[in-house]
Task: structure prediction
Amino acid sequence: MDMMKIGGFLQELRREKGLTQEQLAEMTGVARRTVSRWETGSNMPDLDILIELADFYDVDLREILNGERKSERMNEDLKETVLQVADYSNEERARLLQRMHWFFIATLIGVAAPLAITALKLESVLPYEFIKGFGSGAAVGVIILGIIFTGKQAGRIRDAKMRLLKKVRESRK
Result:
């Protein structure tokens, strides 16, 4: 996939409709800067937005992905499949967001417990001393996990995990 070519095609389609990047951003619910990144080829729209753009510009999704016009139209079966993939992608994003909420709550607890123990001057009492140390360590660990989950490494880790699971399943056969 040539992202520069796709970006140029998206820009061409937007201009044909007489829209500014700001107007398109408002229509799709993204920032103007995001539209600019699509058009420069430095980023790609999510699949559900790509489908929305294909419908709006009245072009085939394959045309957008190829970065040029084709004469044939996308058949309804292919469109339905792509919509199902987009739904799956949105569900996965929702699961990741839910995990991030739990990490955030765990971090708050990990930070609040040591602060409360210090404020109550209980850090020299044995169980509270342990809780304070554990809470601080857990908070740092959760922050590191949050950085991994929200960074580019999360996809790589997931892919490596899937390859490892596949190898394990193949070795069991």
In short: The two ends are 36 Å apart (CA to CA).
